[in-house]
Amino acid sequence: MGSRAIKGYGTIAVCMALAVAGCAQNPFGQAGSGGLFSTAPNTAAPAADPSLAQARQWEERARKLDADNADLHRQLAQSQQQLQLLRDELSLLRRQLEATANQLETAQLAKQEAERRLENYLTSTRNRIGASITANNSLTQPLKMIEIPGLQVRRDGDVLRVEIPADQLFEPGTVRWQPGAARILDMVGSVLQSNFPRNIIAIEAHTDNATLLEGTSLHQLAASQALAVFQHLSRQTGLQERQLFTIAHGPNVPLVSNGTPAGRQRNRRIELVVYPETF
Fold first, then answer.
1. What spatial distance separates the first Cα and last Cα of the chain, rounded to whole Å?
2. What whole-number distance in Å separates Cα of residue 166 and Cα of residue 172?
3. From the CB of residue 139, how many other CB atoms can be counted at a distance below 10 Å?
4. What is the residue-wise DSSP string for the chain?
5. Which of 188, 253, 179 is nearest to 218 (CA)?
6. Is the pLDDT reported for residue 126 higher than 60?
7. Domains of the chain: residue spans and CATH
């Protein structure tokens, strides 16, 4: 073999030696060498799955819808409770209105019955004292107002009322005259006889609500006081018996509350009521 051939074999041997050395260092080749046995890892991120992202979006929307639905259910329950409360209040108001209407109707019927009984009583009383009632012309000729010193005179519809404190005429709770009672009744009788010589006049006796001695009622006291005033006016003044009649109201028609001494004193009174009717 020639020297050239030997040199060629030497070169092949060196290459094989290098190859063996390289395999010993990295049996599978250098990273990034691009060789046939290169095993460099793939560092690129895997592509996202679009169906998985859409599923997560739907799941999130479903959770929000569930929360909204629960909130709406709570609001609906609260609204139903409020509606039931309003229905209960409306039902209560209807019952109260019905009860009030019934009470009003009962009161109106009682008022009508009381007026009817009073009219029958007045008619019976006037007939009993021999008075013949003429037509009421008070709309065209109302009763003229009068003044009596120290006493209150007020117009009440078609009638005039002269109020005399009962304590000025009687000792409280009795029919015993006060010292100045005759003077007061004489003055009142004179004024009434001068201005209303033929008018019907009622003597109404009122008491407070105080409790009297056992065996005596407030109506009996009022009736006795009214009769005493009737007797004095008909015997000591120019007023005639047939134009006078008495009514014992007792405590039934107070002017003010009986809750104070001043109120009870105001309610104890004798009222002379002048009617437009004449005899």
1. 186
2. 8
3. 8
4. --HHHHHHHHHHHHHHHHHHHHHHH-TT--TTS--TT------SPPPP-HHHHHHHHHHHHHHHHHHHHHHHHHHHHHHHHHHHHHHHHHHHHHHHHHHHHHHHHHHHHHHHHHHHHHHHHHHHHHHHTTPPPPP--TTTSPPPP---TTSEEEEETTEEEEEEEHHHHB-TTS-PBPTTHHHHHHHHHHHHHHH-TTEEEEEEEE--S---STT--HHHHHHHHHHHHHHHHHHHSS--GGGEEEEEEETSS-SS-TTSHHHHHHHSEEEEEEEEEE-
5. 253
6. no
7. 152-278 (3.30.1330.60)
Question: What is the value of pTM for the model shown?
Answer: 0.52
Q: Report which of residues 135 and 245 the model is more confident about.
A: 245
Q: What is the mean pLDDT of the segment spanning 247-271?
A: 96
Q: In angstroms, rounded to a whole number, what is the distance separating the alpha carbons of residues 106 and 114?
A: 12
Lowest mean pLDDT among 78-87, 96-105, 117-126: 117-126
For residue 115, what pLDDT band results from cuts at 50, 70 and 90?
A: confident
pLDDT band at 213 (very low <50, low <70, confident <90, very high): low
Per-residue tokens: 269: 């009174």
